[in-house]
Every structure is written in structure tokens, then in C-alpha cells.
Design a protein that fits this description.
EC number: 2.7.11.1
Distance between the termini: 30 Å
Helix content: 25-40%
Protein name: non-specific serine/threonine protein kinase
CATH superfamily of the largest domain: Transferase(Phosphotransferase) domain 1
Radius of gyration: 22 Å
CATH topology of the largest domain: Transferase(Phosphotransferase), domain 1
Shape: globular
Keywords: ATP-binding, Kinase, Membrane, Nucleotide-binding, Serine/threonine-protein kinase, Transferase, Transmembrane, Transmembrane helix
GO molecular function: ATP binding; protein serine/threonine kinase activity
CATH class of the largest domain: Mainly Alpha
CATH architecture of the largest domain: Orthogonal Bundle
Number of helices: 12
Largest sheet: 6 strands, antiparallel
Number of strands: 12
Catalytic activity: L-threonyl-[protein] + ATP = O-phospho-L-threonyl-[protein] + ADP + H(+); L-seryl-[protein] + ATP = O-phospho-L-seryl-[protein] + ADP + H(+)
Number of domains: 2
Length: about 450
């Protein structure tokens, strides 16, 4: 079996490997040339030990073929999947770039450019979700600009499967890019279309402000930030930006998936102003004692009753059992978790057994530990209250949005998608570790 490092200069005597532009724990990324079709390509050559896993080979083939069948101008095209000397490889559309993470090094994007990014990204996600494909790793490094200026989504699902096949020691831990993972993913719950929309909201907020909404020195602190950070509404931070755009981004970042948009098409319609502006949804931390909704079975965004006006929670409401999966990585995470649980118990005793004051003001800080102050699911800024008539999104679609006249060669490379079959709503896809290949663009 050939070593990846000593890979032949031409795979199957067809795909020339001209320049290595990235490498990592899963394999190598090459700029290549298709001798048969006389065109530039990008090639991902996987490590032999991954190719040796029978279960991985089977699923990798299914998902790569599903990705290849997804023909959309805002998704990086997959041309071929094969193996050479025992190593699996993917052949994909080659794009000049840059990727969004490289673009954001220079600071935030103009609002109109962020709007175009939103339209392109949501158009690609809508097409993928309609095909029952969930990306699971939307982030700036997986958004690449084409020569014609169109943004494309790359790396559909393959990073997750590669990490699983590598038999990492952190089994079941949601690692990879925690700054863009939805709260339910950090709990180890299945990824759905709603988790993709959360990640899209994080990306768009970062593009508008130039800063990650959730950040930290390590994965544990990032996971803590996702759980406890209160994000001020973008309309307060950027009052001059189109409220259709800022309102859509804020709604995508609702903590409870049921309060996000039901589909990428619905969010796209909101960004483009084709639907009434969404009601304000406080962004970030949920109220104390608010468990995430069950993820097993049912639609991606389950219908739920409209939330009651702001007030004390029911006496029998359980305290949140949210335990970030990432905190199980180290003993330090267990110590932190234990300290938080002790603080929670002490706080409950000091409050007096759960008699919360409905008129009590929320803390003025921008971050907050779980406490007795009642807020609607997805609550964020203490100074704002979610309207009592706000209902979670359960229906509605939009078109896949504008796109160019075909795929254009662009910067990064994309790869296979995590496929599921089912009804018109994308089925939940079991989540797991995600370790993306490094971007070949720096």
C-alpha cells in the first residue's frame, strides 16, 4: 500500500498531482490536472489507514456519490471518487479563492457583501437540505469565493466521517470547530438542518462584526461561551445595517432550535426581505432550567406551542441538565463542571427553593451563568423581552436563491456530504467528531 507522502504523481494515470497545498491527520490536498478532460481539479488523497476501514469505505462512497449528485452553483462540485494503490481519493472543482476565513483577516465585510454571502450560503444549504444532506461543519474556512465572485460551500460531511474512521480517543466528543457548533451539537445530539442554520448565523454575525460571537482559549471555554454568552441584538450593534439581514441572523442564533427558521429557504426569504421581518428573538443564553428539546425522532424543527410571556417558570420545570460533551475531554473539564454544579445548588438554596421573582431584573452583564430569572427559550439580551406571541418556525420554504450560470473555479476544495434519506425535511444525521482538512489557502 502506497504512503500518502510518496503518492504517485498521477492517480490512475489520469489525475496529475501537481502541487501539494495542504496536509493533516487525514491526508493531503493537491492541486491537480485531469488529463482526460484537460481541466484543473483539486484532489483529496486520504490516509491509507482510513481507506482500510471497511465501514468507512462504504459510507464514504455513499456520501461522496450523494455529494457528486448535488449540482448547485453554491456548492463545490465533486467530480470523481476512486482509489489508487489502496488509497481513496476525491476529485473536486478547483477554486481560486479566497476562503472566508482568509478574507476576515482584514476585518469585517461591508454589509452588502455579507448579504450576498448570506444569499449564496443559504441557497447552497437549501439545496443540500432538500436532498436530505446536512453539512455539520459550516464555518468560514468551508466557504470559498469563485472567480466570478460567488460564494460556494465545500467539505460536506466528509470531515466528520474521516474523524470517526480514525478511531480517535475522544469517542463521541463534538470536537472540530466548537465556535460554530450549535448548543445541541455540543450536547452530542444529532446534527440537523437547524444546526446548519445556527452555524450560518454565527458565520454571518462574525462577517458583520469582525469578531467571533463565541470564543475562548480552548474548546472547553468555547463550549462554555456558547452556553452562557448573551449576545446583544445586531440592530443595537449595527443600527445602520438592513434589519432584514440582522433580524435573520439573530433568529438563526436562537438557543432553542424550534425558534430558528424551519428551513434554509425560509431564512433566505427573510434575508431578501420576501417575508415579513421576523419578530425579535433574544439571542444566546436560554432561561435557567430550560432543557433542550428532545432530538430523537420527529422533524428537524419540531412544532411547539407559542411560548408564554416572560414570567416565572413552572414549579416543576427541571433544571437544565446540559453538560457540554467537550467538558469530558479532560479532568479539568470535570472539575469545572463540578464547580458549576455546586454553584448552581448554592444559588438555588439562596434563592429560596425556586420562588423566582417575575419582576426581577436580569443581570446587566453580557454573559451570565444559569440563574432563576425567567426568559423565553433562546433568550439573550437582559434589557429585551421576547414577545408573548412569538411562535417557533415550523413551516415555510424559500427558493434556492439566485446563483450564477454554472460552477466557477474557485479557492478551496469541497468534498462529500453526509447523506440521509427520508421525507422533504432533512432527517437528523448522527453527529460525531469533526476534524476538517486544513485550508490549502493559507
Amino acid at each position: 500500500m502506497a504512503d500518502v507522502g510518496s503518492a504517485p504523481r498521477a492517480l490512475l494515470d489520469r489525475y496529475e498531482l501537481r502541487e501539494q497545498v495542504g496536509s493533516g491527520g487525514m491526508g493531503e490536498v493537491w492541486l491537480g490536472w485531469d488529463r482526460r478532460l484537460q481541466r484543473d481539479v483539486a484532489v483529496k488523497l486520504l490516509l491509507p489507514q482510513l481507506s482500510d476501514e471497511p465501514s468507512f469505505r462504504q459510507r464514504f462512497g455513499v456520501e461522496a456519490r450523494a455529494a457528486a449528485a448535488l449540482d448547485h452553483p453554491n456548492v463545490v462540485a465533486v467530480y470523481d471518487i476512486d482509489e489508487d494503490h489502496g488509497s481513496l481519493f476525491l476529485v473536486m472543482e478547483r477554486l481560486p479563492g479566497p476562503s472566508l476565513d482568509r478574507r476576515l483577516v482584514d476585518g469585517p465585510l461591508p454589509a452588502e457583501e455579507v448579504r450576498r454571502l448570506a444569499v449564496d450560503m443559504l441557497s447552497g444549504l437549501h439545496a443540500a437540505h432538500e436532498a436530505h444532506l446536512v453539512h455539520r461543519d459550516i464555518k468560514p474556512g468551508n466557504l470559498i469565493r469563485s472567480a466570478g465572485g460567488r460564494w460556494k460551500i465545500g467539505d460536506f460531511g466528509v470531515a466528520k466521517d474521516l474523524a470517526s474512521a480514525a478511531q480517535l480517543t475522544l469517542v463521541g466528543v463534538a470536537v472540530g470547530t466548537p465556535a460554530y457548533l450549535a448548543p445541541e451539537q455540543l450536547e452530542g445530539r444529532p446534527a440537523t438542518a437547524a444546526t446548519d442554520l445556527w452555524a450560518a448565523g454565527v458565520v454571518l454575525r462574525e462577517a458583520l462584526t469582525g469578531q467571533r460571537p463565541f470564543d475562548g482559549a480552548d474548546p472547553i471555554s468555547v463550549a462554555h461561551a456558547v452556553r452562557h454568552t448573551r449576545l446583544p441584538p445586531l440592530s443595537q450593534l449595527l443600527p445602520g445595517v438592513d434589519p432584514d439581514l440582522t433580524g435573520a441572523v439573530d433568529r438563526a442564533l436562537a438557543f432553542d432550535p424550534a425558534y430558528r427558521f424551519a428551513t434554509a429557504g425560509q431564512m433566505l426569504a427573510a434575508v431578501e426581505g420576501r417575508t415579513p421581518a421576523p419578530a425579535p428573538v433574544p439571542v444566546g443564553v436560554p432561561p435557567a432550567g430550560t432543557p433542550l428539546p428532545p432530538a430523537e425522532g420527529g422533524p428537524v424543527v419540531p412544532p411547539v406551542a407559542a411560548p408564554a410571556p416572560v414570567g416565572p417558570p413552572p414549579a416543576d420545570r427541571q433544571r437544565s441538565r446540559w453538560v457540554p460533551v467537550l467538558w469530558g475531554i479532560t479532568a479539568g473539564g470535570a472539575v469545572i463542571l463540578g464547580a458549576l454544579l455546586v454553584a448552581l445548588l448554592i444559588g438555588a438554596v439562596m434563592v429560596g427553593g425556586g420562588d423566582d421573582d417575575p419582576q426581577g431584573p436580569a443581570p446587566p452583564s453580557t454573559t451570565a451563568e444559569p440563574g432563576p430569572t425567567a426568559e423565553p427559550d433562546g433568550a439573550g439580551e437582559p434589557a429585551e423581552e421576547a414577545p408573548g406571541d412569538l411562535e417557533p418556525s415550523t413551516t415555510g420554504e424559500g427558493p434556492s436563491g439566485p446563483g450564477g450560470t454554472g460552477a466557477q473555479d474557485d479557492g478551496d476544495v469541497g468534498s462529500g456530504l453526509g447523506a440521509d434519506t427520508g421525507g422533504s425535511t432533512p432527517d437528523a444525521v448522527p453527529d460525531g467528531p469533526t476534524i476538517p482538512l486544513p485550508s490549502p489557502w493559507g
